[in-house]
Automatic annotation (TrEMBL):
Organism, as annotated: Ectopseudomonas hydrolytica
Annotated residues for binding of FAD: A13, D32, K33, R40, Q56, Y57, I128, D302, V309
Family, as annotated: Belongs to the bacterial renalase family.
Cofactor(s) this protein requires: FAD
Pfam families: Amino_oxidase, NAD_binding_8
Amine oxidase domain: residues covered: 109-324
Catalytic activity of the protein: 1,2-dihydro-beta-NADP + O2 + H(+) = H2O2 + NADP(+); 1,2-dihydro-beta-NAD + O2 + H(+) = H2O2 + NAD(+); 1,6-dihydro-beta-NADP + O2 + H(+) = H2O2 + NADP(+); 1,6-dihydro-beta-NAD + O2 + H(+) = H2O2 + NAD(+)
Protein's UniProt name: Renalase
Amino acid sequence: MNAPIAIIGTGIAGLSAAQALHAAGHDVELFDKSRGSGGRMASKRSDAGSLDLGAQYFTARDRRFVEVVQQWQNRGWAETWAPELYNSQAGQLSPSPDEQVRWVGAPRMSAISRALLGALPVHFSCRITEVFRGGSHWSLQDADGNSHGPFSHVIVATPAPQASALLACAPKLAGVAASVVMEPTWAVALAFDTPLDTRVEGCFIQDSPLDWVARNRSKPGRDNHPDTWVLHASSAWSRQHLDLAKETVIEHLHGAFAELIGCAVPAPSFTLAHRWLYARPAQAHQWGALADADLGLYACGDWCLSGRVEGAWLSGQDAARRLLEHLA
Ligand code: FAD
Ligand code: NAD
């Protein structure tokens, strides 16, 4: 019997690779340090309902991704989201409608990763600290001192800074991953018992600590009450305020939100802050995925292409394709 393929990371890149390999008849085994799947596409359950704190929506431009998103829609995992979009520049709020089709997981972003994972074998709350090759097979070591394996191949599907250490067996790949700079994002959620008196449902922002705000209830399948908003700080502001206490971040971003939204903003009934340390690659790349095919070690993630959901999914497909081509 062939040993399974290990996949480290159950974000959309790892799940994309897992689906492709499973569909080709290979056994996969997934690992994630978090308690659930989705990575930066996950949703957080809170006292104010489910909140999409990471990816807000996604667009599909590559034909392969357009096709798969269509399938997700047919299965009820994804729906289009057509918010009343605004732009805020130099403190001036103005409507900014466009024709772009935008997608969200339904009824929450994590619906997609949950469905893609399905019944595939997975170890959650399992942080992999080392990937090593013994004889003809791979083994993984986790932070609790357990080892896992044997595996025929390993796909590392984590953000680049976390991937470089796991790729130590292939110094070339580790070096490429180590060269990728990833920017942080502070995310804040605010809930209001009385809905805000505004038409804004999504807003692109310049000249502010914030670069994006979204009204949760405007997305399909979300609760209507309370009126929850997700605020994202810009990369620059997040980098400069990386180690600020969560309460202080909430205070700052709540203030910036009240300044730009153009209506009275009462004290929120619920607040939450989350720091994404590796939110987005500082620049896009054209790598597809990284591979040392002779060794059987691969890396994928949004940082190999564009720092978007589509880029991450395509990168996972590329890692799987290269692995399958090498086997053939
Ligand atoms: P991830 O989703 O980061 O998955 C990596 C997984 O690896 C995680 O689950 C992590 O827990 C796990 N992991 C890491 N290290 C280890 C380890 N040592 N052992 C085990 N597991 C490990 N994209 C869009 O297209 N549209 C948007 O609107 C958008 N907004 C965003 C807003 C924010 C705040 C953030 C943070 C991202 C946003 N993105 C957006 C980007 C998008 O979320 C990512 O491009 C995409 O989700 C990345 O997927 P991935 O699988 O490459 O990585
Ligand atoms: P998209 O086409 O909607 O947006 C791309 C960019 O175009 C936006 O960032 C915005 O600057 C501009 N834009 C688009 N429509 C606009 C409008 N109607 N009015 C004004 N400006 C508009 O989506 P995409 O290309 O799939 O990009 C994904 C989104 O995810 C981007 O907004 C990106 O900033 C965001 N993102 C955020 C993080 C983070 O950490 N905060 C990480 C990755 C991606």
